[in-house]
Amino acid sequence: TGAFTYDPGFTSTASCRSALTFIDGEEGVLLHRGYAIGELAERSSFMEVAYLLLNGELPDASELDDFVATITRHTMVHEQLASFYRGFRRDAHPMAVMCGVVGALSAFYPDSTNVHDAGQRLVASHRLVAKMPTVAAMAYKYSIGQPFLYPDNSLSYAGNFLRMTFGVPAEEYEVNPIVERAMDRIFILHADHEQNASTSTVRLAGSSGANPFACMAAGIACLWGPAHGGANEAALNMLREIGTPDRIPHYIARAKDKDDPFRLMGFGHRVYKNYDPRATVMQKTVREVFGSLKVSDPVFDTALRLEEIALSDPYFIEKKLFPNVDFYSGIILSVIGFPTSMFTALFALARTVGWIAQWNEMITDSDQKIGRPRQIYSGPTQREYVELAQR
Ligand code: CMC
């Protein structure tokens, strides 16, 4: 009993105060610490954005150098972690591996698990941001049976990740600057998105005082769902299944059919009732990457046509369903060479910055209590126990 506000899915409940990210869903605006996502994606780097989210201000040149040096110093993972991977089946989904491995980091770095120690929180934050590319690349290498590559600290954050993913010990790996820039931009576009399901999960897990590695593992588990980060994988699979533009109307009809569970993946958003500003940048990036690399993929034409048809259909207009960040990202990721199963792992890699920044904000917020939602009880009232023989 009790008079609680019933708000399943938290459509109207603010669970915290946050100074990190602002979204105006009606206007399609996304700001990190006041800076527009389009401008950050165009003009800054993922390391700058990570610094901004973690520290509140953009770094000056020497602050950025120091930050990059700190992150770079933490790129290696404990050697023993490699055996952790070997316990998985080779065909394990990278997100299944990531849930386990990231959660296990707390066992490898127990000296940064005391959430009440600001110094330990800082080291944990740096470790997580630094090690996620290594952890994600290892998941990929394990799945294709190639040896793990150690990080190369002479490379950029994105460049190092690309090399650990696509390089082999037998050959020099040359980072393609166009791909490196696109990768960095994709990381920026995924860095944070206020109180989405996985971020709220991280905050809720962290509200009990759980260590940051465990909280990230909780975030990864939540992100994996197809309604959330898993949508990038689902969107590209859908576009491939549609195949050619002439088959689009059939899928549009299915998406509108209430008796069919099918949804257009990469479409719709809880907060955006307008074009997702990240999708705008993503679409532009696909064009740039295709142009610079002189490649194309018919799936992009299918995506553009699908968007056009959906945005002129009364169903999508009335429900204000627009492409979201996941609609176009898979197209670039697949051109870069990632299998669809890695897409959500890349999302997790980049979102770790947002998760850890939000986690730090929560821990240092004096209003914060353990997250403990209430419920509207709908079960039976108290009744007598009946012995087994009498039931
Ligand atoms: N295709 C067809 N119909 C849709 C879609 C879609 N993609 N999205 C929403 N609708 C309909 C839905 O059926 C509902 O109709 P009605 O009011 O008649 O029941 C209405 O639009 C509102 O949908 P909802 O599910 O109540 O809205 P929500 O805010 O709970 O869900 C969402 C938001 C993102 C989960 C949903 O739009 C969706 O499932 N989209 C596809 C998956 C996807 O692309 N997810 C990525 C989200 S953005 C990045 C991220 O988080 O990773």
TrEMBL record:
Matching Gene3D superfamilies: 2.20.28.60, Citrate Synthase, domain 1, Cytochrome P450-Terp, domain 2
Pathway: Carbohydrate metabolism; tricarboxylic acid cycle; isocitrate from oxaloacetate: step 1/2
Keywords associated with the record: Acyltransferase, Membrane, Transferase, Transmembrane, Transmembrane helix, Tricarboxylic acid cycle
One record GO biological process: tricarboxylic acid cycle
Domain of life: Bacteria
InterPro entries reported in the protein's UniProt record: Citrate_synth-like_lrg_a-sub (IPR016142), Citrate_synth-like_sm_a-sub (IPR016143), Citrate_synthase (IPR002020), Citrate_synthase_AS (IPR019810), Citrate_synthase_bac-typ (IPR024176), Citrate_synthase_sf (IPR036969), Citrate_synthase_typ-I (IPR010953)
Any one GO CC term of the record: cytoplasm
Active site: H269, D326
Catalysed reaction equations from the record: oxaloacetate + acetyl-CoA + H2O = citrate + CoA + H(+)
Listed transmembrane segments: 327-350
SUPFAM superfamilies: Citrate synthase
Pfam families (alphabetical): Citrate_synt
NCBIfam families, alphabetized: cit_synth_I, PRK05614.1
Protein family membership: Belongs to the citrate synthase family.
Protein name according to UniProt: Citrate synthase
UniProt organism field: Novosphingobium chloroacetimidivorans
Lineage: Bacteria, Pseudomonadati, Pseudomonadota, Alphaproteobacteria, Sphingomonadales
